[in-house]
Amino acid sequence: MMMSTGRLFAVTVFTGKERDAETGLDYFGARYMSSAQGRFTSPDAPFADQHPEDPQSWNLYGYVRNNPLAHVDTDGQACFALNSGSAFCGRATEYGQIDARVNGQTRFFAAASAVSQALANSDVGYGGFMSRSFAPISGTTQQFLGAVGQDLLQMNRGAAADIQSGKMGGQDLDSRMVHMEQSKVQGSLDSLKKSDPAAYQTLVKESNAGLNPSADMRKLGSVFGTDKAYLGVLDGVRKQLGRNIDFSKQGDREAIGNALIQHIRQTGGCDVAGDKLQGCK
């Protein structure tokens, strides 16, 4: 705590900025941010941090493109990605690019982009409020998911090439793509279970915690549109299954993939893929 200009300020745990106890506003240097609204109280300077390809950047009052789990604004003047160096983030971008080429045949890659972005958000390594006790993803789990993600990307690149050449297609292409991917994931899970049972148990426990979120995680997710939509898809899968999602079960993971694709086909999918899937149709 510190005294400043006659007012009591507290350092906020989410942004690390000073909060004015009287107004409830967070001081960012260039301007103040209202955490209750998730918005700055004054507009950004025109053309200071706006980009034609990013519609959210033109909201001059918006805080970090409405995605504070993935971005940060240190002084109230510019947004940048916390996880820009994450391999998950790179895969999210590439899957979005593939989707732009093949979305007439399948929306699998849009769903893959959304999942990769969700994993990228967990790869930031928050401290304070967003600590690992709140979103428990250990280094071992991240390493496994990262390695599997890279293997899946290689496989899916080949599938995308086959789709573009006409070697793969059909009305059930979405579900076949999901099954092919999750069969490969299952093979990796089975190998981990055999070679390192403890790491396998940790992976399943932490993954299930994310897929069946606590009340606190749900409360946070209800604030941000992308996370709220993603949680809504998971709610639908749990309702369909009649129980909590079990990451160790291939059928449960396929249910998530198919539900995401269905949601994307119905809504366009920008609400689950966020700014990593440009020009959603």
For the sheet with most strands, the description reads: 6 strands, antiparallel
Shape: globular
Backbone CA Rg:
20 Å
Q: Determine the mean pLDDT.
A: 79
Succession of helices and strands? EEEEEEEEHHHHHHHHH
Assign a percent range to the helix content: 40-55%
How many structural units, i.e. domains? 2
Could you say which structural class the secondary elements and strand pairing correspond to? alpha+beta
Which parts are unreliable, with pLDDT below 50 for 5 consecutive residues or more? Answer: 1-13, 125-135, 275-281
Strands of the widest sheet, in order across it, are 1-2-3-4-5-6
Distance between the termini: 48 Å
Report the sheet-strand fraction: 5-15%
Number of strands: 8
Tally of separate helices: 9
List the keywords.
two-stranded antiparallel ribbon; 50% helix; 2 domains; single chain; disordered N terminus; alpha+beta; 9 helices; 8 strands; 281 residues; 6-stranded antiparallel β-sheet
